[in-house]
Amino acid sequence: MITIEMLSDMCCPVCRRGELKVDITRQENGKIIEGELVCSLEGESYPVRAGVANFIPPALLSDAQWQMWQDHLRGFQERREERIREPQRQVHSFGKKSRSKHAKSKFAEFAGIREGKVLDLGCGPGKFRFHLKENVEYYGIDPLPLPEAAEFPFVSALSEYIPFKDGTFSHLVVIDAMDHFKDLDAFFKEALRILKPSGKFHLIQVIHDVKGPVSAVKVFTHWVKDSLEDRATKIKNPEAPKHITEFTSASLREFVNRYFTIDAARSYNEKWYSPTKLFLSMSPRR
């Protein structure tokens, strides 16, 4: 949901400077249900429908460079809908443990977020908020809104075009989502922009290191699950990658070190054969 109160922290995601003028068609208890948000500088318009503000820049939808990413996103959506329709199907339960709330609970302990404003980028249904203290202000962003988005401050947007003002957030959280971002450099620049100078970036990301037989099994398990899910789901463009970027521990650290200083790191495995997740907590390089 988007509220009138949220607008004071928000800006046009394209120019990143314009205030948002609001034309409300319908509102309820401070929530904007239907209307338009218009950039005061560029005149770009962003619709609000059923309580969800769509901040995906319209020009990107016709951009050839973004077409493959859109096909990738549609494939992600189709696989998620298939999991919801048939949750007991073996191919879906195969990877279910790695998406468990146990990982989020351990990650919340690792991040140690005790106060401030938190932006969960690629939030899905926003379940990470249940692992935070009550005094923490939680906001979610995802290009694919789910019904649960009505339960917390949420907008539909991209990691490369975040519709919040400079220095809005104390913490940025990305949970198992960074391998779906199209332009990592653009995302990291946005992350630096929307974080306070003392802010923290907390990341969970699956990594694929082959350093022996056990790690080889983990990588093979990940590949098998992806392949089986692709076969079980009718993907319109089978050429679209399931993950935009696959990371090793070294490649992930090398990339984040361009923009952030790693303050803490931890490896996490749900099962011995599950792909390894790397927890990172980072401070901005200024």
**Could you list the spans in which at least 5 consecutive residues all have pLDDT below 50?**
94-99
Query: Judging from the principal axes of the Cα atoms, what is the shape?
Result: globular
Query: Number of DSSP helices?
Result: 6
Q: Architecture of the largest domain, according to CATH? A: 3-Layer(aba) Sandwich
* N-to-C span: 33 Å
Task: Give a structural overview.
There is one protein chain. The two termini are 33 Å apart. The longest helix is centred in the N-terminal third of the chain and has 22 residues, at 64-85. With 286 residues, this protein is α/β, with parallel strands linked by helices. It is 27% helix and 26% strand. It is built from 6 helices and 12 strands. The model is unreliable at 94-99 (pLDDT under 50). The protein has 2 domains: 1-54, no CATH class; 64-284, Rossmann fold (3-Layer(aba) Sandwich). The strands form 2 sheets. It has a 7-stranded mixed β-sheet with strand order 8-7-6-9-10-12-11, sandwiched between helices. Strands 1, 2, 3, 4 and 5 form a 5-stranded antiparallel β-sheet that branches. A hairpin with an 8-residue loop joins strand 11 (260-268) and strand 12 (277-284). It has helices spanning 64-85, 90-94, 101-111, 184-194, 213-232, 249-256; strands at residues 2-3, 20-28, 31-39, 45-49, 52-53, 117-121, 137-141, 154-155, 169-175, 195-206, 260-268, 277-284.
